[in-house]
Amino acid sequence: MTRHVLSDRLRKLVEYDVLKKVAYQQRPLREEYRLTERGLDLNSIVLALVSWGDKHMADECGAPLLHRHKTCGHIMHPVTVCSECSEPITARYIEVEIGPKWIGNDELSI
């Protein structure tokens, strides 16, 4: 990736409040990028993509990176669970319904 492309992508991530620039040195000014709250909220999405890649794209050597849960110390694999009952869920166990804001709204087209 060229410096120009990297710079442009980082600028957009700052613009969309995913990253923020934080000075770690004043003379000369040097900055690093840190995740914002919005950026931290992407963690579950990134973990899901990594998990998919580890399952479907890894070679016989296995996953290139492991994820250790700091609380229990175990190597973990991300699992999506129901916010109400904590049961693991997959696409087969989800129904999509129209939200209350959209019921009776003529602008909604499915």
Question: What features would you describe in this structure?
Answer:
This protein is an alpha+beta fold and 110 residues long. The model has no long low-confidence stretch (mean pLDDT 92). β1 and β2 form a beta hairpin. The strands form 2 sheets. The chain has a two-stranded antiparallel ribbon. A two-stranded antiparallel ribbon has the order 3-4. The protein has 2 domains: 41 residues, no CATH class; 51 residues, no CATH class. It has 3 helices and 4 strands, in the order αββααββ. 1% of the residues are buried.
- Along the chain, the helix and strand elements come as HEEHHEE
β-strand number: 4
Provide mean pLDDT, rounded.
Answer: 92
- Strand order in the sheet with the most strands: 1-2
Radius of gyration: 20 Å
- The helix fraction, in percent, is 25-40%
Mind summarizing the main beta sheet?
2 strands, antiparallel
How far do the termini sit from each other? Answer: 39 Å
Class from helix and strand fractions: alpha+beta
Which descriptor suits the 3D outline? extended
What is the number of independent domains?
2
Give the amount of beta strand, in percent: 15-25%
Low-confidence runs of at least 5 consecutive residues: none
Number of helices: 3
Give a summary of the structure in a few sentences.
The chain is of the alpha+beta class and 110 residues long. It is built from three helices and four strands, in the order αββααββ. It is extended.
